[in-house]
Design brief:
D-Maltodextrin-Binding Protein, domain 2, single chain, 16 helices, five-stranded mixed sheet
Length: 563
C-alpha cells in the first residue's frame, strides 16, 4: 500500500512586514507588503558572499546550494512552492509520490511524459538510476546521505565510474518510464527521500570526475551558460524544459546572474541603497546583524523578509578526540556556554532564538526540553567546573574550534571562546574559507575538536535531522555529516527502530524523545535557531519563502520586466 505523511506548514509569502512571528512561523503580510505577481522576462541578480559549495548535486548539500539546485535540476519529487505548503513534498519528474510494497521496502515511480535534458534528450528511468548510482562514488558522494544509507546492499558498490558495467541491483528499470527502488529497510517516507539532490538524473555515462562542478547538465528551467568559480555564474533559460511537466517552477526571469565574493557589508549597503541594477537583485544571504536596525523606513521594510527559522546552529564536538571522548567534559561545555551572548552575536532576538534541543521547533514530533539550564541562558559555570573536576580536568585544557571568517560566525566563535575560558578551556579558532568549510569539516582527517555548523531538515521530519548528523553508520571519511562521530549502540538501535515504523506520526514523536536521549550524551551544543532578514530590490515581485528557510529562488521574478 502507499504510505502518506502529514506535513507541517512552514512557507510564507515574501512579506515586507517586520511584525515578525516566532520561530517556525512566517512573516505576517503588512500594509506595505509586496503583492504584485512577478512577470516573465528580464534578469534577476543574486549577490552572495561565497560561491556555492558544488554545482554537482552528488557533492553539495548545504541549504544555500539546495535552493540553487532547483533552478537547474529536477528530481522525482520536490518541495512545493505554494505559500504555506512549502514543507509538503509533491511530484516533480514522477507522476506521483511513489507506490510502496513489501512493507515499505520496495518503491515504484513512473516518469512523466515529455521530460528532457537541456539538449532535448528524453530523461529515462536509466538516467535517474545513473544519477543515484553516482552518489555511491567515494569521491563524489559527499552530499545527501539518504541514497547511500537506504540503498546500500552490502556489495561494496563504488558507483558507475569505478564499477563501470556493474549492475546496481537495488535499483531496477523495467522500462524507460519505470524505476523501482529496493531498500535495505522499510522507510515510510521514501517519497520525500527521492526529492533529495542525490536523485538528480544525468545521461548514462556522463559526469566523471569534476565535470558537473564546471558544467552541469540541466533538467530544470535554467542551464549554466558561464561559470567563473568564486566570481560569477550566469544562467539562461533551458528551452527544452517544459512548463507543462512542472507544477513547481515558474521560471519568471529569462536569466539569473550570481555574483560571488562580495563582502557581507558591501551586499548590505548595495541592497539598502537600492540603486540602478540592484533594484533587480536579491541578497543571497541574511542582513548583517549590525545593519538590522537600519531596516526602519517603510521603503526598506517593503523589501525585507524575515526568513523562517528551520535550522539549528550548533557546535559539534568530536567525540573521538582526547577529552571530548568524556561525556562529562561535553556536558560541562553544554553548561558553560553563555547562549545569550551567542544570540547577541547572531543578531539578537530578532534574528535568533536560543536553542536547547537539536531538533528545530518546526519539526513534527519535536519535544521541548533543556537538560543544561542556566539563569538567563548565561551558562552555569559552577556545574561546568564540577563536571570538569570529575573528569580530572580541573585546570581545563586546550581545544581547536573549526569556524568560518564571516562576521556573525566569528562573533559566535568568540562568544564560545569567552564562555569556555571561564572554566579553563582555551579555544583556538581555526578559520576556514566559507566556500570549502563543509567539505573540510566533513573530512575526518581534517576535523578538529569541535566545529560551529548548522543543520536544516530536508522535509518536516526528525528522520532528516537526527540520523544524518548523529547515527553511527553515517560516519564517513569524506562527506561526514556526523561531526560528533557519535557511534552509540543505544542511539543507533533506536534510530533503526524508528526508521522501521510505518506510522509516520509515531515515528516523529519517537524522534522527539530520541532528541532528549541523545542530549544526555551531549555530543553537541545547540546554540540558536537562526532566522534571517533578507533584502530584495524594489523591482522584485512577490516570492515565497522556501522550505530551506530563505527566499525560494524558483519563485523569484521581476515586478516590471520592461525596466
Amino acid at each position: 500500500m502507499q504510505m502518506k505523511t502529514k506535513h507541517i506548514v512552514l512557507g510564507v509569502v515574501l512579506s515586507a512586514s517586520l511584525a515578525l512571528t516566532a520561530c517556525g512561523g512566517g512573516a505576517k503580510v503588512g500594509a506595505g507588503a509586496k503583492t504584485g505577481e512577478p512577470q516573465k522576462g528580464g534578469t534577476v541578480s543574486v549577490l552572495l558572499n561565497a560561491d556555492y559549495s558544488h554545482l554537482d548535486p552528488a557533492m553539495g548539500f548545504d541549504g544555500g546550494v539546495n535552493n540553487f539546485y532547483r533552478l537547474i535540476y529536477r528530481t522525482l519529487t520536490t518541495n512545493s512552492t505554494v505559500a504555506g505548503k512549502t514543507s509538503e513534498m509533491v511530484p516533480d519528474l514522477a507522476t506521483d509520490m511513489g507506490k510502496s510494497s513489501d512493507g515499505g521496502k520496495t518503491w515504484t515511480f513512473t516518469l512523466k511524459d515529455g521530460v528532457k535534458f537541456e539538449d532535448g534528450t528524453p530523461i529515462t528511468s536509466k538516467d535517474v538510476k545513473f544519477g543515484v548510482e553516482r552518489s555511491f562514488d567515494p569521491a563524489l558522494g559527499i552530499g545527501s546521505p539518504y541514497a547511500r544509507t537506504l540503498l546500500d546492499d552490502g556489495s561494496g558498490y563504488k558507483g558507475p565510474y569505478a564499477d563501470k558495467g556493474k549492475d546496481f541491483a537495488p535499483i531496477q528499470t523495467p522500462d524507460d518510464k519505470t524505476i523501482v527502488f529496493h531498500l535495505n529497510q522499510p522507510f515510510a517516507d521514501f517519497g520525500s527521500v527521492v526529492g533529495q539532490n542525490s536523485f538528480v538524473p544525468f545521461p548514462v555515462g556522463s559526469g566523471a570526475g569534476t565535470a558537473f562542478d564546471a558544467k552541469p547538465i540541466a533538467s530544470g528551467p535554467y542551464k549554466v551558460v558561464s561559470y567563473n568559480r568564486g566570481s560569477e555564474l550566469k544562467l539562461a533559460r533551458n528551452t527544452n524544459w517544459s512548463a507543462a511537466t512542472d507544477t513547481v517552477r515558474k521560471a519568471y526571469p529569462d536569466n539569473l546572474d550570481f555574483t560571488f565574493g562580495l563582502d557581507g557589508a558591501t551586499i548590505d549597503e548595495r541592497m539598502l541603497a537600492d540603486q540602478s541594477g540592484d533594484k533587480d537583485a536579491i541578497s543571497g544571504g541574511s542582513l548583517q546583524p549590525a545593519n538590522v536596525s537600519r531596516v526602519q523606513t517603510p521603503q526598506i521594510q517593503d523589501r525585507a523578509v524575515k526568513t523562517t527559522a528551520i535550522c539549528t546552529t550548533y557546535m559539534g564536538m568530536n567525540t573521538t578526540k582526547p577529552h571530548m571522548s568524556d561525556v562529562r567534559v561535553r556536558q560541562a561545555i553544554n553548561y558553560a556556554i553563555d547562549k545569550s551572548s551567542v544570540q547577541t552575536a547572531s543578531g539578537g532576538s530578532q534574528l535568533a532564538t536560543i536553542a536547547n534541543t537539536i531538533m528545530v521547533p518546526s519539526l513534527l514530533g519535536r519535544k521541548d526540553f533543556d537538560l543544561y539550564p542556566s539563569t538567563g541562558n548565561k551558562g552555569d559555570i559552577e556545574k561546568a567546573k564540577a563536571l570538569l573536576a570529575e573528569a580530572g580536568l580541573s585546570n581545563g585544557f586546550d581545544m581547536t574550534l573549526d569556524t568560518r571568517g564571516t562576521p556573525m560566525i566569528q562573533a559566535q566563535s568568540q562568544a564560545i571562546q569567552q564562555s569556555l575560558a571561564k572554566i579553563g578551556i582555551t579555544v583556538k579558532l581555526n578559520v576556514i574559507d566559507s566556500s570549502t568549510f563543509y567539505e573540510v569539516i566533513g573530512t575526518r582527517s581534517q576535523q578538529h575538536d569541535a566545529a560551529i555548523t548548522g543543520w536544516c531538515p530536508d522535509w518536516a521530519s526528525g528522520a532528516t535531522f537526527l540520523p544524518p548528523i548523529l547515527e553511527g553508520k553515517n560516519i564517513t571519511d569524506k562527506g561526514n555529516s556526523n561531526l560528533a562521530q557519535l557511534n552509540d549502540p543505544a542511539v543507533n538501535k533506536q534510530m533503526a527502530t524508528i526508521a522501521a515504523m510505518t506510522d509516520v506520526d509515531a515515528a516523529n514523536k519517537a524522534y522527539g524523545d530520541l532528541d532528549e536521549q541523545i542530549m544526555k550524551l551531549a555530543p553537541l551544543v545547540p546554540l540558536v535557531y537562526q532566522n534571517g532578514l533578507q533584502l530584495t530590490g524594489s523591482n522584485i515581485g512577490k516570492s515565497v519563502i522556501g522550505f530551506n528557510g530563505g527566499v525560494d529562488l524558483v519563485t523569484v521574478g521581476l515586478a516590471n520586466a520592461a525596466k
